[in-house]
Design goal:
Length: about 600
Amino acid sequence: MRLLSPFSTTPSLNSRFAQLILLAAILTAAGWLYVSSFGGSGQTHIPLVTSHKGTHPIDTLIQDADRISKALLAQETTDVESAARVYRELRGRHPPPGFDIWFKFAQDNKAVIVEDFFDQIYHDLNPFWGVPAREIRQQANDFVHRISVRGGNVTQRTDIDQRPWMDLWQNLVQSIAQHLPDIDLAINVMDESRLVVPWETVDAYMGTEFKSRRLTPISDVVSKYSGLVDLDRVPPPPFDPEFLPYGPYWSLAVAGCPPGSPARSAPLETNFSTPPLLPPEYPLYSYQGYVSNWTLAKSPCDNPNLQGLHGTFVEPISTSTSKKLFPLFGGSKLPMNNEILLPPAMYWTSDPFYSGGAAHGGPWEEKLDKLIWRGAASGGRNTRDNWIRFQRHRFVSMMNGTSIQQAETSSQSPPNFDIPSYTAYQLTALRNGYLGDWVATFADTAFVHLLCFPDEGSELCSYTNPYYKVAKEMPMSEQYANKYLPDIDGNSFSGRYRGFLGSTSVPIKATIYNEWHDSRLVPWKHFIPMDNTFVDIYGIMDHFLGFRGIGGHDNAAKNIALDGKAWAEKVLRREDMQIYVLRLLLEYARICDDNRERMGWVEDLKA
Ligand SMILES: *[C@@H]1O[C@H](CO)[C@@H](O)[C@H](O)[C@H]1NC(C)=O
Ligand SMILES: *[C@@H]1O[C@H](CO)[C@@H](O)[C@H](O)[C@H]1NC(C)=O
Ligand SMILES: *[C@@H]1O[C@H](CO)[C@@H](O)[C@H](O)[C@H]1NC(C)=O
Ligand SMILES: *[C@@H]1O[C@H](CO)[C@@H](O)[C@H](O)[C@H]1NC(C)=O
């Protein structure tokens, strides 16, 4: 898809802009603005600035988001009895033993307690009701990378001297260990997620889980954990997770998708040297071009084109996948993966490289009207034959005014993106080939390391040199001088996201990864969601920033930035990670217990 600029033969776009802005200033007052004096080619006149007759789709999405987040907050519980009641209604069982201690810990730490915030725990753990408890305990105990709790002491075992993530997670578990029964956690120390159990197998396990739901009569309830003395006395037999050797990931991953999902029937792509296939108009599942169902927008099962648009599928650095369900904990995963999510280790660190440190940015009004991104060209192993499909490469090119201008004025397609057609988004900048010029006014995106394969050093990469200029790293605190912070997946999720949410700038988020916090965050309320094709980015910026000072909604962007920050300070604190992990590990300990079907906390029912 390419729109040739009608001005490609005229000397200066900039002087045209000067005229345009002048005219805009005169004509907006009268409520009319046509491009007739510039359009030149006898096309139908299209209003430049529309006083949207209907509501702009983003306004509608923001209103919906407001409603959704109010409804979420309305579910807050403030005493353990109502929390337990909601638990039984939603989960179909008694809460796990220790629920009162968990609730008190949450309340003492001033948490907003909403049962939905813990949905991910049940999503992750429920399939394990289909596996015998003893098997789960044994698998975890034998796994090479392991964090163990015994009598409130936390230890770790791994294969090399030091693994920073192991240390961070050990520290997190230690911080709540006085409330925990004895457990072993098998830990994924890789960036990439590793379990894809076939959907049909998980479905059968979920069926077993559903059938095992009951509210055991109070007199039969077991309220103590059995512990792991059996394992500590006699070590378990070796457990082989049967990790498969490195290979293409898509065909393994789709086994985790529901049988009728688009990904299951999509043809396999193996040649990534051709330009990416982008949607000619709106992305799938959008509302008039903008993400309206975040779950669907993120899901590779529902977006088979992602197999050619994301490094995870194009060429991951490492894959080591098992099809067996065993209790492997990790920081992020794809919707079709079966890991048990912990808050990512990088969110527990105080290293300012990921956390942004104590600085959260100044007042909105003092920020630049700009979009900033700095990062490595990660996402997987980019090579001469596949780099044009990598998400970070695509995004940096799509935000590079020069490369867009080249695309607008030459007949040669850019290697890794398309100029969207005017017919879909109808943006002023697209109308007459001003996109590159406009994007150059606000976008500042650059790689800090090209991560070429084979390696040529941080600043050199023979096959991408013509397209990218390496910039210096910029601390997050400096990035916060800009209003807009896009956040794009690397080899897996992006570790800066929590810092971005807590800043006074507004994150623009695209991802295919799930994290512990997903049910806490409402798209369009706490962050701006972006499709993984990025074709909506120009429309997003046109709406919030406006076109050269006209028609922006700065206040709406500011609200999302500040609502997101205030919310992060309520539900994404370090305390909130501890509260999540305590709840998770009580549930996990129950699932590992031979008495699990009868275990529960029922003190509230005894009164
Ligand atoms: C926990 O650690 C303390 C101090 O090292 C030790 O005295 C105690 O025996 C340990 N408890 C268990 C159950 O290992
Ligand atoms: C991939 O496709 C391109 C363009 O069709 C072709 O030139 C190239 O040989 C293909 N590569 C492989 C490994 O098949
Ligand atoms: C998103 O789509 C899924 C699948 O159709 C649906 O179950 C879910 O309720 C939708 N979510 C929202 C917020 O509309
Ligand atoms: C922007 O694109 C041009 C042309 O492709 C390239 O020369 C330049 O290095 C790019 N800038 C950055 C910051 O990557």
